[in-house]
Amino acid sequence: METLEVTYRISADSAAPEALVESVLLEQTIETPRSVAERYPFVEEHMMGSVRELRPEESGDVIATLSLPFSNAAADPAQFLNVLFGNSSLHPHVTLLDFHPPSTVTRLLPGPSFGMEGIRQTTGVTGRPLTCSALKPVGLSVQELSDICRTLAESGIDLIKDDHYLADQSFSPFRERVRICQEVVDDVSSATGRRVVYVPNLSGGPDDIRRQAAYVQEQGVRAVMIAPMLVGLPTLHATCRDDLDVPVLAHPSFGGISAIRPSVLFGKLFRLYGADAVIFANYGGRFSYDAALCAEIAQQLRSAWLGIKPSFPIPAGGMDADRVSELVQFFGLDSILLIGGSLLEAGDDLDSKARRFVETVHSSATTLQNAF
Amino acid sequence: METLEVTYRISADSAAPEALVESVLLEQTIETPRSVAERYPFVEEHMMGSVRELRPEESGDVIATLSLPFSNAAADPAQFLNVLFGNSSLHPHVTLLDFHPPSTVTRLLPGPSFGMEGIRQTTGVTGRPLTCSALKPVGLSVQELSDICRTLAESGIDLIKDDHYLADQSFSPFRERVRICQEVVDDVSSATGRRVVYVPNLSGGPDDIRRQAAYVQEQGVRAVMIAPMLVGLPTLHATCRDDLDVPVLAHPSFGGISAIRPSVLFGKLFRLYGADAVIFANYGGRFSYDAALCAEIAQQLRSAWLGIKPSFPIPAGGMDADRVSELVQFFGLDSILLIGGSLLEAGDDLDSKARRFVETVHSSATTLQNAF
After folding, report:
1. CA–CA separation, A227 vs A249, rounded Å?
2. Which residues of B touch A169 (CB under 8 A)?
């Protein structure tokens, strides 16, 4: 029988960690007392799951690896999450540490449609990290945003994304913004021979996102951004499968589901549900992830896994142009470096600051390549 | 200017709680250094938000109430969550404690279509808590599930819901299960004159849910269940608005986003996005919520708020029939009591145990009414 292996941390605060493991096993499978399942041979044989490993840690926490029936998880993209960490997410003593689905999961969740290689083809950039910046702050008019877009595009930035607060607001209507910003990057691409990519933010209910996806692709847009936790991971999956012929950058907003290890949420689940590149809170910026966790997220996104395409890591969040060399060293050539607010802080010097960001990425990459 | 007021707890663990308040304010508004916004008069005037109150607690935590621009949040149902708690959810030191939108939020999010009164009309039950049980465990055939459904329906249970693990699995196909279970409750309703309601679980991507919603309503189903955190809150909203003419029971699965106070997630957000009744982990059961928190969730669901309809609280999760009198006392007449696994444990005595559950709810309600 195919199983979904899931590893949870059961905290030592729990009154009886080992009893909690049994209760988590029942919670994530039959959700009844064990005696109920024993009345039904099919359930007892195929649905009960089992405890594969129990490993006590020095802290008193218990690391429990369970085998859960994949036939249950495989029903649909919402049900997969349900079996992985549905009710158990409500237990304060339980954290999702890792999971290993059978390779047949890709029939349900085929992972990124484009992945790192697809984004490299879209941009024409090889052998170095890509550069990315953002159109912000929210409240600017389409004219103001498109002026920033032009400056960033001319400076040599590869990907210019909407801020995640840009939606369809009256002061910057979605369609007008997309049309004009795409014209700007098309202009600059024609003039320079580079392929500058504008990445609009899709937001709303599933029908809104479908309409927006159709519109942006009509306009020639070659990548989009979606925040999977805002719209729901099943909506990300459906949008990638049904509505998009371009790569998706995933934004981490509303992803503070602290009962899931961030490398599992951003590194594995976002990728499995179709994100071609994943933005996450970098170490040393506005958020509290440490370097080891960021390395782990990047590693998960790029690792060989289930035969699905690797996704680009996009460390971001209060990053400064001064840290570029360090970050190229740390994340390596297969990464996208996103610097937003810190470039915009330059005001009238945006152009020169953006150019310095681009040049530092290029030269750091060359240094790194030569080091091999 | 209309504002969304949001209250966060900034934990004392944070190096500099008051500096973190400023950073949360920027995070949830312009997401750039303040100097960037000051270059644009419209942004400075309308988008910056402000700190309305800072209240240090004895623990060293700081309770911060911010006013955020509603014009930004109002763009769509995903953007509302984004402004409420998007990036800040990623801060380990920040918890969402409460929020107060302007009354115009109901243009975007009108709340439950049916609410408590609609569910009472659907079932024909007045003046007492409703009774609810579940078809489970997953792995049973349609025949086995419909046998349980018949026993529960004949015992006098008002609402019989699918377990949240029932999706469209091969051993219990969705359409067949819905058709046959609905026939069962229709039979029993005709025979008894009561209106027994079968509540199938809708699961999957947005198109799956739309197709399922259409199918179940064709079959005469009069309420459905959806897990908003699995499918995404914007999908719940869109489904209620566009695809359903029957009430929705919301299931808490995948709702362990511990950075949001559960009374806010289950009591306010689920209701605002359209849930007519909300299942939550009861005190004294399998989960760790305490009685005060459960009372707060129930209070939030039923309170006068924004002119939107009140929703039924459904305490659940390892509840035992022995606790029914206590729970009727605790949650009052406007509640739905859900007992699942503990009834099924009775095996061949399911019928008598379910009848005892029903009778205890009815008699406890009479006692409570007479006490007034």
Report:
1. 8
2. 71-72, 75
For B219-233, write each residue's pLDDT tens digit.
999 999 999 999 999
Please report which confidence band the pLDDT of residue A285 belongs to, taking 50, 70 and 90 as the band edges: confident
Interstrand relation of A3-10 and A94-100 (parallel, antiparallel or unpaired): antiparallel
Token pair listed for B198: 């079968």
* Subunit contact A256:B42, Cβ cutoff 8 A: no
User: B156 Cβ partners below 8 Å, 6+ apart?
Assistant: B131, B194, B354, B355, B358, B359
Pick the more confident residue, A1 or A48: A48
List CB contacts (< 8 A) between B87 and chain A: 164, 252-253, 317
Strand partners, A130: A336
Tokens 């009372």 — which residue?
B295
- Provide Rg for chain B, Cα atoms: 22
**What's the token pair of residue B305?**
């708020």
pLDDT band for B93, please (50, 70, 90 cuts).
confident
Q: How many helices (H) and strands (E) does chain B have?
A: 18, 12
By C-alpha distance, which of A336, A231, A217, A338 is closest to A276? A336
Gyration radius of chain A's alpha carbons:
22
B296: tokens are: 């707060």
Quote the minimal CA–CA distance from A45 to chain B in Å: 10
The alpha-helical segments, DSSP class H, found in B170-232 are 174-192, 206-218, 228-231
Q: How far apart are the first and last CA of chain A?
A: 45
The encoded tokens of residue A349 equal 């010097």
* Lookup: tokens for B287: 């989960």
Q: Name the residue with tokens 């206590």.
A: B326
Q: Give the pLDDT confidence of A251-279 residue by residue, as tens digits.
A: 999 988 668 899 999 999 999 999 999 99
Residue with tokens 């529960």: B152
ipTM of the complex: 0.93
Comparing CB atoms, the residue among B46, B77, B254 nearest residue A82 is B254
Reported as half-sphere exposure (CB side, CA atoms, 13 A), residue B217 has a value of 14
**pLDDT tens column, A161-180:** 999 999 999 999 999 999 99
Distance CA(B60)–CA(A19), nearest Å, equals 35
Question: Choosing among B21, B87, B240, B280, which should be mutated to test the A contact, i.e. which has the most A CBs within 10 A?
Answer: B87
β-partners of residue B291 are: none
| Contact: B30, A89; criterion CB under 8 Å | no
Tell me: the pLDDT tens digits for B98-108? 999 999 999 99
Cα–Cα distance measured from residue B288 to residue A318, given in angstroms and rounded to the nearest whole number: 36
Q: Which pLDDT score is estimated for A258?
A: 66
Q: Looking at the DSSP assignment, which residues form a beta bridge with residue B95?
A: B9
Is the alpha carbon torsion for B204, B228, A255, B71 positive or negative? positive
Strand partners, B197: B159
**Chain centroid offset of residue A130 CA:** 16
Residues A133, A137, A140, CA angle at the centre, nearest 5°? Answer: 115
- The answer to whether residue B109 scores a pLDDT higher than 70 is yes
How far from A226 is each of A95, A276, B26, B152, CA to CA, in Å? 26, 11, 21, 44
Count other Cβ atoms within 10 Å, centred on residue A59. 9
Binned at pLDDT 50, 70 and 90, residue B76 comes out as: very high
Calpha distance B257→A63 (Å, rounded): 21
Tens digits of per-residue pLDDT, B130-139? Answer: 999 999 999 9
In 10 A of CB A2, how many CB atoms?
A: 14
B-chain CB neighbours of A340 within 8 Å are 31-32
- Nearest chain B residue (CA) to A40: B140
CA distances from A163 to A108, A130, A339, A361, B351 (A): 31, 18, 11, 22, 57
The CA distances from residue A80 to A51, A77, A157, B18, in Å, are 19, 5, 38, 40
- Nearest chain A residue (CA) to B240: A205
